[in-house]
Amino acid sequence: MVEVGSLILRNKPNDIRKILEHPLVHMVEGDEQGKFFRLSMEAAKLDSYLKEGLKDPKTAYYKINLKKLDNYKTNLALEQDAQMGIYKPRELLGSPYGTISSQA
Questions:
Q1: Is the dihedral of CA 6, 9, 11, 16 positive or negative?
Q2: Distance from C-alpha of 42 to C-alpha of 6, rounded to nearest angstrom
């Protein structure tokens, strides 16, 4: 997934073929590919963020380095899906973050 996301983020015309021929893309249904590509891009951004400033990229996923995720900000929008429920701000529940509720 990170590989697909990295190809998308590079934004090179020749990478389109590599993306579309990637085995993971073939496993995803056509109407779900947009979500898959957005998730792949976010996975690539996370991977890049974790490897940032490391001498050895293999240590990116070590427990000590994963603490960096506490400060990571995502650009993914909360997707409102009728099957998932309705988005309600947790401010109403005493927390500044949002939550998903199955009740309207």
A1: positive
A2: 9
- Assign 80 to helix, strand or coil: coil
> Scanning the structure block, which residue is given the tokens 């109407």?
31
For residue 7, give Cα distances in angstroms to 31, 36, 83, 85. Answer: 20, 13, 31, 33
> What DSSP state is assigned to residue 100?
E
Span 41-86, pLDDT tens digits: 988 988 888 888 777 877 777 777 777 777 776 665 555 444 455 5
Q: Which residue has the tokens 């991977």?
A: 47
Residue pointed to by tokens 């996301």: 5
For 19-49, write each residue's pLDDT tens digit.
989 999 999 988 888 889 988 998 898 888 8
